[in-house]
Structures are given as structure tokens and as C-alpha cells.
């Protein structure tokens, strides 16, 4: 059985969604990052980078959310173009890596500088807010002409994006970004309506994660600040 190490953050939720969609058997193992459990020696043996998500599937250990999506989709033969379909496979890899290298990092930095960083932060927030919007605008334009990220086929690319799209109000600091991004909202609503999305909610609610961002949580979430002490 696959062991799935997770928290409620956007990246683990992508993997939870795919696991729920595929029907693969798995055990969900919570890792409370605000308690520093990602730095426990036993966990670092699984992922030396000290982050979730991670899966352990027999002899295979896979970390990084987008690598896990690709691994599980290929394993199950679902939600991903076949390797032999080079044109569609290339499109899938391009958009999947666009989300991995662009949407995720810039959204994460927008969240950090908007909600966590001390002043002065105007330059950094402007930089990452601009790039978050730019990446979302690229996806908005693509979805204007496509039902899903790969045309008519629901895939791991939609799941990868769903992890972040559901967080857009928090990422952008806008209560209702959907007037600006209606095609993203359409995709989000379609994915949210799938039974697998309800299964993701069950996975999250099965464990009570620490919600307080107290001094202990800040120490674990932002260890770089120790260098400023």
C-alpha cells in the first residue's frame, strides 16, 4: 500500500486529489509542519529536503508534488497521455512544469511577502504579486479556449493547478479574483464538483493540524529568520 505523507498545503492536496481519483490504495500519514514534524530524523530519511508531500510505494520513494503526480498517473494509467503520444505528452509536460516552476513558487512567495514577511517589503511583494498575476493570466488565456489544460481531457495538469487555484484569494490578497479570472474559476468549480474533491476534504479533516502561527510555528516555517537573530 502507498504511504502518503501530507499536510493541508496546496502541494500535498494535489496528490491527495489524484490518489482519490485513481482509486489506488493508500495510507494518509499527517505531517504537521507547524510543529516541525517535517524535520524529524525519520522523516528526513524519506525526504532529505524536509518537505511534504512524499509517497512511499514499496521500494519507490518519490518527493516533490509534480513528480508524484506523474509517477502515480503513469502507475495507474490514468489522467496522463501515454508516452507513445508524443505530441500530447509534450504538452502535458510543458504545462505541468509551468505550474511546478512558475505558478507554485511565485504564488508561495506572494503568500509569504503578503502575509508573513516583516516590513519593509514593498519591492518584494510587488515583484511576486506581479509574477503570480502574470502566471495566472497565462493560464486564464489558455483556458479561454480549452475545457481543461489539455483540451477536452481532465488530467494531472488540472489537478496540479487546482492545488493553487483554490488558494487564489489568499495568494493575491483579493477577496474575489474570479471576475478577473473567470475561466480559472470555471475549471476550479468543475474539479470541486468531482467526488474525489470530497474525499480530499475527508483526508484533511481526519487529522487536526496545528492552526496557530505562534513563535514555535514561525521557527519551523521560516527557519531562515534564525540567521537574523
Automatic annotation (TrEMBL):
Which Gene3D superfamilies does the UniProt record give?
1.20.1050.10, Glutaredoxin
Q: What is its EC number?
A: 1.8.4.-
Q: Which residues cross the membrane?
A: none
**One Pfam family, short name:** GST_N
Q: Which domain of life is it from?
A: Bacteria
Q: Where is the GST N-terminal domain?
A: 1-80
Q: What broad class of enzyme is this?
A: oxidoreductase
Q: What is this protein called?
A: Disulfide-bond oxidoreductase YfcG
User: Which source organism?
Assistant: Granulosicoccus antarcticus IMCC3135
